[in-house]
TrEMBL record:
Subcellular location: Golgi apparatus membrane
Family under the similarity heading: Belongs to the glycosyltransferase 34 family.
Protein name: Glycosyltransferase 7
Record's bilayer topology term: Single-pass type II membrane protein
One Pfam family in the UniProt entry: Glyco_transf_34
Signal peptide (residue range): none
InterPro entries per UniProt: Glyco_trans_34, Nucleotide-diphossugar_trans
Taxonomic lineage of the native organism: Eukaryota, Viridiplantae, Streptophyta, Embryophyta, Tracheophyta
Keyword field contains RNA-binding: no
Length: 445
């Protein structure tokens, strides 16, 4: 995944404010570009009741009625009436390079009508998709890191009632590495008509704020949400957005978009041509092959009317953030949060993990001045280990493997502490994932 190395490198310069790296540096970067293979498989959690990812404004005090409602309206996991729907159409295929799906919106709607217990709350339901390569990691600790990174996503999903699918096969054998997400997301859209949104999260990204929820209201008029920097998009930089984490609406627009996006990939007869087009357009692109991220920026800019206008570029918080810029802030953030807990008895109260969203809304009141994203003291939402290549170990040579490893341990412990809190334990040292201490009653009063 030479590409990811290159990306991270460019991303780091980007975050430091100098995006347009000179030719010499570009050449230097190319040297470090190494391919690694990533691919995104199913781990649907058998939820007895699907909790919609809706904004529950209720605090812990009113959560009783909310919970009662969700129980009464729980999804029926056994009801699948014999009436025909899109699954019975022999021509419909899950693969990416096949006749396009048509009238998906109507087909999904029809399915929801047949499955009324899923229809309730469908408009805000998110389904998470992630994955990694089919074979063991080359890096001896790669599979250990991938397991912890997956655990981190499962923790986030459990706290918010989101189902998750971990794919570790290539649904289109030629679509290796970062191209693997496109066929996976398409198959997930068909497998999960109950979900309005598919949330792709790269294997090397970690949730470092277990409470924060995507501001879905903001994305109402959009079908695709990406993290990016609008001023850099205009300057035609291939790192002006990050394709490693995205939210895509389960709709016909997205089906069409995925087809167009995937048509730039290695399985396509136009792959080489796209490599040329993208390299010509993005002067800072560091390798000649077509890649998914440049492809996205291309569609944003060149087909604005058709695609760009439905794409929301999120820049207000760490929809995903570069680890180098984030990891150093964890200690101070922990201190700030602990200080707040010392003052607010309500936040120290022990509670069931299931109602943690209620406590998150109480936290919000105390985080109004924190800001969000770069320079803020709020917990960063997603920390992305771009360039660390945990599975292959072919990390960017700009930093050592140990630096990456320590940063991942730190971020994952930082996140785990938010989870373990509900289980009565804490890691006293973020760099020592083996050690936990029991939390005393009323900690940290
Ligand atoms: C953490 O806080 C200390 C004291 O306020 C400050 O000097 C330091 O720059 C902060 N570190 C980071 C990484 O923000």
């Amino acid at each position: 995944m030479a590409k990811h190395n290159g990306r991270s490198k460019a991303a780091s310069f980007l975050s430091d404010g100098f995006l347009f790296i000179g030719g010499a540096l570009v050449a230097f970067l190319v040297v470090w570009a190494v391919w690694s293979f990533f691919s995104p498989s199913p781990t649907p959690s058998p939820a007895f009741s699907i909790s919609p990812y809706s904004d529950r404004k209720s605090g812990p005090d009113t959560s009783v009625s909310a919970a009662a409602t969700s129980c009464a309206g729980g999804a029926n996991l056994r009801h699948d009436p014999p009436d025909a729907n899109f699954y019975d159409d022999p021509k419909l295929t899950y693969t990416i390079d096949t006749p396009p799906i048509k009238n998906w919106d109507e087909k999904r709607k029809e399915w929801l009508k047949q499955h009324p217990s899923f229809a309730a709350g469908a408009e805000n339901r998110i389904f998470m998709v992630t994955g990694s390569q089919p074979t063991p990691c080359k890096n001896p600790i790669g599979d250990y890191l991938l397991l912890k990174l997956f655990k981190n996503k499962v923790d986030y999903c459990r706290r918010h009632g989101i189902d998750i699918f971990y794919n570790n096969v290539l649904f289109q054998p030629k679509m290796f590495s970062f191209w693997a997400k496109t066929p996976t997301v398409k198959a997930a859209m068909l497998a999960h008509p109950e979900a309005e949104w598919i949330w792709w999260v790269d294997s090397d990204a970690a949730f470092t704020d277990m409470d924060f929820k995507l501001p879905l209201d903001r994305y109402k008029a959009y079908n695709l949400v990406l993290h990016g920097w609008p001023n850099l998009i205009e300057k035609k930089s291939w790192t002006s957005i990050n394709a490693g984490v995205f939210l895509i609406r389960n709709c016909q627009w997205a089906m069409d978009f995925m087809d167009v996006w995937a048509s730039m990939g290695p399985q396509s007869p136009d792959y080489d041509k796209w490599g040329e087009t993208l390299s010509t357009m993005f002067k800072d692109k560091i390798f000649p092959e077509s890649d998914d991220q440049s492809g996205l920026v291309y569609l944003l800019l060149e087909e604005k009317e058709k695609w760009g206008n439905k794409i929301y570029v999120e820049g207000e918080f760490y929809f995903e953030g570069y680890w180098m810029e984030i990891v150093g802030t964890f200690d101070n953030i922990t201190e700030r949060y602990t200080g707040i807990e010392k003052d607010v008895a309500g936040l120290r109260r022990r509670h069931a993990e299931k109602v943690s969203e209620g406590y998150a809304t109480v936290w919000e009141e105390h985080l109004k001045d924190a800001g969000n994203g770069r320079g803020s003291w709020r917990r960063p939402f997603i920390t992305h280990f771009t360039g660390c290549q945990p599975c292959s170990g072919d990390h960017n040579q700009m930093y050592s493997g140990q630096t990456c490893f320590d940063a991942m341990q730190k971020a994952l412990s930082f996140a785990d502490n938010q989870v373990l809190r509900n289980y009565g334990f804490v890691h006293p040292d973020l760099l020592d994932p083996s050690t936990v201490n029991p939390l005393p009653f009323d900690y940290p009063a």
